[in-house]
């Protein structure tokens, strides 16, 4: 595949400084509304769930309140499960899959778990269809102590404040064609490097924690998803996005070392979903349903 490797901002081989990051930020525009699409939906959940504001993000373009939705009648004797979406705001089905899970399935699991759902960790990214936050920081590499990203720090503090162990954490993502047309070239330019990985798997796959792989848990998630959409095949080198296949549809990464979202909760069972909405074999609605199926498949396994 031939790709454009020279991004229009910066000098090839030289990492971005403040000037280049400011130029990038100045080019970003609002394309949809977090308040219309997400906050208004969360408001409708208040009769059936507890809704907590766990912080807010104040940027030059506006202020964004951050919300989690929890099942009612919290019971410390039950295990707690966490679902996160919109860590990368541009990944639409992650946000709407989390909302759909709350709307249609979350109450079914209340007898078994305390369920905590954070539907959109990166509202500015949602509105501007961006992977990064306004400081050009990737939230899904920033779940670390003293995180430089408010998107990460706020949810980390909230979950720590619950004072419970997290049994399972499912983080909802997607991979889109804009990864190649925009975000991979932009990251390479910012880092002063040349991108060499252009692989986008056609289908759904999972990223698990290499320290706690739990292959049967991952399989349960994929079995549920496969009722909705197809699972991504490995490439000719038996890899997905340049990583070795651990089992069908699953790659494993050192998630804590990389600062990935599923690491901060220290959940025993953890996985990151990746669905491909640009596939000719899937629709945006199927991708939302696949995210819901991933959550229910994992929770059904753990009931």
Automatic annotation (TrEMBL):
Q: What is this protein called?
A: Zn-dependent enzyme from deacylase/carboxypeptidase superfamily
- Catalytic residues (positions): 274
Gene3D superfamilies tied to this protein: Zn peptidases
**Keywords of the record:** Carboxypeptidase, Hydrolase, Protease
Per the UniProt record, the source organism is Idiomarina loihiensis (strain ATCC BAA-735 / DSM 15497 / L2-TR)
Q: Does the keyword Hydrolase apply?
A: yes
Give residue ranges for domain Peptidase M14: 30-302
What CDD domains does the record point to?
Answer: M14_REP34-like
Top-rank taxon, per record: Bacteria
Q: Which family does it belong to?
A: Belongs to the peptidase M14 family.
Q: A single Gene Ontology molecular function, please? A: metallocarboxypeptidase activity
Biological process annotations from GO: proteolysis
